[in-house]
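User: Just a sanity check before I run the rest of the batch. Below are the structure tokens for the first item. I only need the designed sequence back.
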């Protein structure tokens, strides 16, 4: 089954792109990052890759937590994107996952499985390392 979502990206000048989510019309702006000659006034396109990973993982964690009758409200991920050169691309993501301390160890193990279940991480090239650890 093809579950397509239309995204429109419009170059608006001054190194910025306006991205529109087709189903809702919500918009975000990206900007050229400083390490590539830009001003870094907004998320860069590669920053959105890091945001997509952390958002995807937390969303799946929420689904698992709900199924396990656990509350992970307030959970967060601090993620860093590391660029590689020749060719310029994302080399790896590193970060820390912070979960509420009151989650049972067995439930926490199930929730942490979301790191590997994330469709975004599964869609990346195999040579892009993802090193996330629990706080």
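Assistant: Here's the designed sequence for the first item:
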């Amino acid at each position: 089954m093809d579950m397509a979502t239309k995204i429109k990206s419009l170059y608006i000048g001054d190194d910025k792109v306006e991205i529109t989510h087709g189903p809702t019309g919500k918009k975000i702006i990206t900007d050229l990052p400083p390490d590539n000659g830009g001003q870094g006034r907004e998320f860069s396109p590669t920053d959105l890759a890091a945001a997509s990973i952390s958002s995807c993982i937390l969303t799946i964690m929420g689904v698992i937590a709900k199924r396990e009758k656990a509350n992970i409200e307030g959970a967060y991920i601090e993620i860093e994107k590391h660029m590689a050169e020749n060719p310029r691309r994302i080399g790896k993501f590193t970060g820390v996952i912070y979960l509420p301390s009151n989650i049972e160890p067995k439930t926490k193990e199930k929730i942490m499985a979301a790191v590997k279940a994330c469709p975004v991480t599964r869609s990346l090239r195999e040579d892009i390392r993802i090193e996330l650890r629990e706080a």
